[in-house]
Amino acid sequence: MRAVGAHTSFQYKHSRAAFTLFELLLVLVVLSVVAAMVVPTLGRAMSTRPLRAAADDLRQLLTEVRRDAIDAGVPLKFEYVPGQREYSVAVLYETADLASTGTENGQPMAATVIASLGERTLPDGISFVEERSSTLGGIEQYLVVFFYPDGSADDSMLAIQDADERSMEITVRGLTGAVSIGKIQQERDR
Question: What's the domain of life for this entry (predicted)?
């Protein structure tokens, strides 16, 4: 038993059930600083999304064209016009039909027959980067990447850009036909 007037276990225990105003304000300041750093980065990432998606779609298409050339056993070509949105894929067939091609020095001439597999366009606001040598006397010059039945391709680099002149390079490695995508570049970076 305890004597009257002795301190009991009910002393001043500090069991807080709430936060102070200062602690709440401190958390709000930290959250606003983090948000100020993250929001501009997210905005830039979202604005480049269409360009990234178009580059990835193009990489996938070029990989499929390579695979189709191997499966079909014939060369395929990917063709585009710099500064434009349109591109096409076509099959190349070699023929040695004497009646349709004639002869050269008594030998049948081989002709290349092209069968188009269709024309497509890049998404709105995305186009192939215009090369300085893409026009000759005002005539559009088509640029071509060939994919061969042995899995190889022409060493090529093509680039696409958006309306804000950000661009991405798509590279085709000749020996293996592998297709890769580079990083986004601003016009001033190139």
Answer: Bacteria
